[in-house]
Write a structure and sequence with these properties.
Layout (H helix, E strand, L loop, with lengths): L1 H21 L16 E5 L1 H5 L1 H5 L4 E6 L8 H8 L6 E5 L8 H11 L4 E5 L7 H14 L6 E4 L1 H6 L2 H4 L9 H18 L16 H16 L1
Parallel strand pairs: 1-2, 1-3, 3-4, 4-5
Amino acid sequence: MQPHRIGSRALFALGATVLALAVLPVAQAKPDTSDAGSRIAIGDSVMLGARWNLLNRQDFTLVDAAVNRQAATGPSLLRQLGGDLPKNVIVHLGTNGSYPIKTCKQLVKDAGSTRKVFLVTIKVPRLWEPVNNRMLRRCDARFPADQVQIVDWNWAASRHAEEWLYDDGVHLRPAGARAFARIINAAIAKAYPPVTTSPPTPVHLVTSRIFHGHLVNKVALQAS
């Protein structure tokens, strides 16, 4: 009977192994945000104040910002880059004056239909602030939602003006520069919802009850 006891122990050990495998959790699918891709930004002196905060992310390949830049220069800046434009284009213009909707529409067209354009609203205590921000929303409405989106810097900055902006109510303190970059990056991330892959098909494993029944039958046969 000694060989029989050894065989039973082996079977029980195998049963424990199968049971352990049966209760292992199925691996959860991991989100994939790689589709967000690289990005560039063009803007005026406000964006210039956050340039290094934006470039601190490896996804940004270029931040072209300049003092006193007018919105009218936007389309030509994008045309100069041409086919080198990455998937995401961030634009913050209109702080320094007029921003016609014709210019905004041309800018989006020059970026190309295969790219996402993020139009950043302005915060500047001048008469053209509400005019330009309304125009940006009208421009946004002229294009598909997956091509153009608004990044509402005006809304956020208005609620943190003392902390984020210098006394001119326009340019960025260090905390404002960090917030500016954070808000833009958050808007891009939101535009690319995480994609999850389906988990692998589960393997049907022997349950402890079924295995125990087979084991008892096998032992009974060996003993007979």
